[in-house]
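Input.
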Amino acid sequence: MFSNFFSFGRRSFDSLSEQEIVALAISSEEDDARIYRAYADGLAEEFPQSAKVFEEMAGEEMGHRDWLIDLYRRRFGEHIPLIRREHVRGFYQRKPDWLMRPLGVDKVRAQAEQMEAQAERFYQEALTRASDASTRKLLGDLAIAEKAHSSLAHRLSNRLVPEDVKKQERLDERRQFILTYVQPGLAGLMDGSISTLAPIFAAAFATQDSWQTFLVGLSASVGAGISMGFTEAAHDDGKISGRGSPLKRGLANGLMTALGGLGHTLPYLIPEFWTATSVAVAVVFCELWTIAFIQSRYMETPFLRAAFQVVLGGALVFAAGVLIGNA
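Output.
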């Protein structure tokens, strides 16, 4: 991103010679082939059919690269200068595959179509800068090829990935998202929101001091977040259960646990005790309904049943905190 602002030391596209434009095209095709192979590797384990799509697209890009190298040798010799996209001011940038992880099937297909559209515009612009007949012909052919490639991912998907396989891949992707992020995060949010009710409101009614209640809530929330996060990450490495990366699950669980407790802790930054308590109770109500919504949305639990379970559990813990605090 910063390269768009700090572009000194980079060449403008208009300043490139035909030799440099062809060299840039060669390196661009190589980079795109690497990206497509990385997509294929990232999808191979869970989505083998879609991985084949990107293997074929990588092969197409390497074919273009070979055409360009043949042209370069005929016109300019054996030495190809190293010039890449990042050396040219205002040139389109590619997002590395590691920035797009986790690799969603639909996400990488959309990215592939965007990449091909950008490549087509590059060849169209390069065509206007070339005077040699053979160079113009090749650049024009590549522009046409890239235009066709803008729907290549879609066409290859139709050939290599039947509709029933696509449907199953989407179901598997959604299931993995739920197992890795939603389920641990929901468990953390429930634990943080409900389990901290008793200590926070017990401290509130015992001290009737907003600041002291805030400190108790902060320590309970952060402590619970750390404990739950480590527990989630340590108890299952995900290899057998298929629940995904323990680090991702632990972070989701720990952060949501802390957030669940902090939601009704932060109102106690309000100095006036009863105002803070009223706001905290309202926040608890919102937290419980949010939990019920997530259960209904992702875990397919009927909303009214989820709401009853969550509200009942929260009410019991809240009542326990109030009774203990007033003892």
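The two ends are 58 Å apart (CA to CA).
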